[in-house]
């Protein structure tokens, strides 16, 4: 996560050309006109965010739009004098405001401790959505593939990676509706094992055996999704098919070395089961 010199998370909402002409070092540019479609690139709502535009009215509009999205911790700064008051740079920037899931940050550190380096290792992000986790893996050095059922989400995933100066390969896959022979059992997929497979906020139980099979010996599974108290506490997801039972997640990876396993609150309105496990190498 990028911050300017005083530690502030700074969102610069000027047009891209103005940003590239001069911006505060550490600032992230999302033009006001693109803010609605790039809301996934912002930090978690509990983080305080400062919005900047030379024009006071545009900065205030950005704050208003963010508050309409439920973000209350918004400060506003404006004017040429403020822009010139700190270290500045020109040209494009690949800084980011968004964060990956905390479990994935933990898993990448575990991977480095286990393997020494992750550069060139392969990773798969199932139900990758707008691509924050896939992009984080790519920035760490993994060669990353992202799966999702929604083409629009995959477009956002590729754009998120591009704006951060990296690359994520994407595939449109519906593992619930496509025949299993195509979705997860084709010869090319059976031949393609991954050093790390991650999945967040998604559950399709018939896929679990394939995940366990498709991690290379010595590789990692990183999984976090909702567990049954979630519905009682927060109302969603409503369907049992989308909720793990307490203790269920660990059971899909018998014989693996469990490196982290917990259940409970992992953020606002998120009661989840979390797992990092390593597949044992053959004896």
Layout: helices, strands, pairs:
Layout: E1 10-12, H1 16-21, E2 23-24, E3 28-29, E4 49-53, H2 56-68, E5 74-78, H3 80-83, E6 88-89, H4 102-115, E7 122-126, H5 132-140, E8 143-148, H6 151-163, E9 169-172, H7 180-183, H8 187-191, E10 194-200, H9 208-214, E11 215-226, H10 229-234, E12 257-265, E13 271-278
Parallel strand pairs: 1-3, 1-4, 4-5, 7-8, 7-10, 8-9, 10-11
Antiparallel strand pairs: 2-6, 11-13, 12-13
Helix pairs in contact: 5-6
Can you walk me through this structure?
With 283 residues, the protein is an alpha/beta fold. The protein has 2 domains: 80 residues, Oxidized Rhodanese, domain 1 (3-Layer(aba) Sandwich); 177 residues, Rossmann fold, CATH 3.40.50. Helix content is 29%, strand content 25%. The strands form 3 sheets. Strands 9-8-7-10-11-13-12 form a 7-stranded mixed beta sheet. Strands 3-1-4-5 form a 4-stranded parallel beta sheet. A two-stranded antiparallel sheet has the order 2-6. Helix 6 links the parallel strand 8 and strand 9. Helix 5 packs parallel to helix 6. About 4% of the residues have low confidence.
Features:
single chain; 283 residues; alpha/beta; Oxidized Rhodanese, domain 1; Rossmann fold; 2 domains; 7-stranded mixed sheet; 4-stranded parallel sheet; 10 helices; 29% helix; globular
Which whole number gives the mean pLDDT? 91
| Rg on CA atoms, Å | 21 Å
Q: How many DSSP H or I helices?
A: 10
Which superfamily, in CATH terms, is the homologous superfamily of the largest domain? Vaccinia Virus protein VP39
Strand content: 15-25%
First-to-last CA distance: 41 Å
The largest sheet has its strands arranged as 9-8-7-10-11-13-12
User: Mind telling me which CATH architecture of the largest domain this is?
Assistant: 3-Layer(aba) Sandwich
Q: What is the structural class? A: alpha/beta
Number of strands: 13
Shape: globular
**Number of domains in the coordinates?**
2
Q: Report the helical percentage.
A: 25-40%
Major β-sheet profile: 7 strands, mixed
CATH class categorisation of the largest domain? Alpha Beta
The arrangement of helices and strands along the chain is EHEEEHEHEHEHEHEHHEHEHEE
């Amino acid at each position: 996560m990028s911050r300017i010199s005083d530690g502030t998370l700074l969102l610069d909402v000027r047009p891209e050309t103005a940003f590239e002409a001069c911006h505060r070092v550490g600032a992230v540019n999302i033009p006001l006109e693109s803010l609605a479609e790039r809301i996934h690139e912002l930090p978690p709502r509990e983080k305080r965010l400062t919005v900047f535009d030379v024009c006071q009215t545009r900065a205030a509009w950005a704050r208003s739009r963010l508050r309409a999205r439920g973000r209350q911790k918004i400060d506003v700064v404006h004017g040429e004098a403020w822009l010139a008051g700190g270290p500045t740079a020109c040209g494009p920037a690949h800084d980011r405001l968004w964060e990956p899931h905390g479990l994935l940050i933990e898993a990448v550190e575990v991977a480095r401790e286990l393997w020494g380096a992750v550069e060139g290792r392969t990773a798969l992000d199932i139900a990758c959505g707008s691509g924050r986790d896939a992009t984080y893996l790519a920035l760490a050095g993994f060669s990353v593939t992202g799966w999702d059922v929604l083409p629009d989400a995959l477009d956002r995933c590729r754009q998120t990676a591009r704006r951060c100066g990296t690359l994520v390969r994407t595939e449109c896959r519906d593992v619930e509706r496509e025949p299993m022979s195509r979705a997860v059992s084709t010869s090319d997929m059976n031949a393609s094992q991954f050093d790390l497979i991650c999945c967040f906020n998604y559950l399709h139980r018939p896929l679990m055996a394939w995940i366990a099979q498709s991690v290379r010996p010595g590789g990692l599974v990183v999984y976090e999704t909702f567990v049954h108290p979630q519905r009682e506490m927060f109302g969603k997801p409503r369907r049992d098919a989308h909720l793990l039972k307490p203790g269920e997640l660990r059971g899909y990876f018998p014989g693996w070395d469990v490196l982290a396993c917990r259940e409970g609150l992992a953020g606002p309105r998120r009661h989840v089961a979390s797992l990092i496990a390593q597949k044992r190498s053959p004896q």
